[in-house]
Amino acid sequence: MKVFCTGASGYIGGSVAAHLVAAGHQVTGLVRSQEKADAVRARGIEPLLGTLDDAERLAQAAQAADIVVNAAALKQVPVCEYFPTQAVMTNCIGAYNIVRAIEENGYPVQTVVAVSTDKACKPVNVMGMTKAVQERIFMAANIMNPVTRFVCVRSGNVLPFGFMPIKSESAVSRGRWMGQFRSDVTAFGLIVGSNSG
C-alpha cells in the first residue's frame, strides 16, 4: 500500500511512518528541510520536501497515495499561544489543503487520517481549538467526498522513550497513579515508537 504521511520527521508521524515501512508499505513523508529529509530516508521513508501550505506538493503526494496520514501540526501549547496565526495556518488551513487537494482533483485516496489530540475535546487553548477545527474539517469532508473516508484519531500526551511513571506522595496516599482523575476511566501511556501499533 502507498502511504503519504505529513509530519514524518516528528514524534507521532515518524513513528507511524516507520511502523508502516516495517510492515512493508511504501511511505512518502512530508518534511520541511533537507536535514529532515536525510533522516527519514535513512529509516526507509521517501522524503518529500514541502509544507502544508504548498497545495501543489500536497496534490502531487495525494495523487500517488492509497492512504494519507496528517500528523504534521503545531502541537506545543505554549508555542500555539504565542503564535496563534501559525497554529491556525498549520493545524486548520494545512488540514483543509489536504482535503482540497483530494476533492478538487478527484484522487482515489481510500482513507485520510487526521492525528488529533485530547486537547481538542472542550478546548481551552489555541492548540486544542485549532485541532478541534481540524477534526471538523475532516468530518465535513466525508459529506463532500463520499469516495474517500476521512477519520480522526486522538492521542494524549506522548511520553519520551524510557519514561518511568512514578507516584507522588499524595497519589500514593490515595492509592492512585499521578494523572488518574476518575476511577471509571482508563488512561494508556504511549511511548514514542509504540503509538502506531
Structure description:
By secondary structure, the protein is of the alpha/beta class. It has two domains: 2-156, Rossmann fold (3-Layer(aba) Sandwich); 161-197, no CATH class. It is 42% helix and 19% strand. The protein has seven helices and eight strands. Strands 3-2-1-4-5-6 form a six-stranded parallel β-sheet, sandwiched between helices. A two-stranded parallel ribbon has the order 7-8. Helix 2 (34-42) links the parallel strand 2 (26-31) and strand 3. Helix 3 (55-63) crosses helix 5. The longest helix is centred in the middle third of the chain and has 22 residues, at 84-105. The radius of gyration is 18 Å and the shape is globular.
List descriptors:
7 helices, Rossmann fold, 8 strands, alpha/beta, globular, 19% strand, 2 domains, 6-stranded parallel sheet, 197 residues, single chain, two-stranded parallel sheet
Topology of this structure?
Elements lengths: L1 E5 L4 H12 L3 E6 L2 H9 L3 E4 L5 H9 L3 E4 L6 H6 L1 H22 L5 E7 L8 H19 L4 E7 L2 E2 L9 H6 L15 E2 L6
Helix pairs in contact: 3-5, 5-6
Overall 3D shape: globular
Determine the fraction of residues in helical runs and give it as a percent range. Answer: 40-55%
CATH class of the largest domain: Alpha Beta
Counting DSSP H or I runs of 4 or more residues, the number of helices is: 7
Provide a concise account of the structure shown.
α3 (55-63) packs across α5 (84-105) and α5 packs parallel to α6 (126-144). α6 (126-144) links the parallel β5 (111-117) and β6 (149-155). By secondary structure, the protein is an alpha/beta fold.
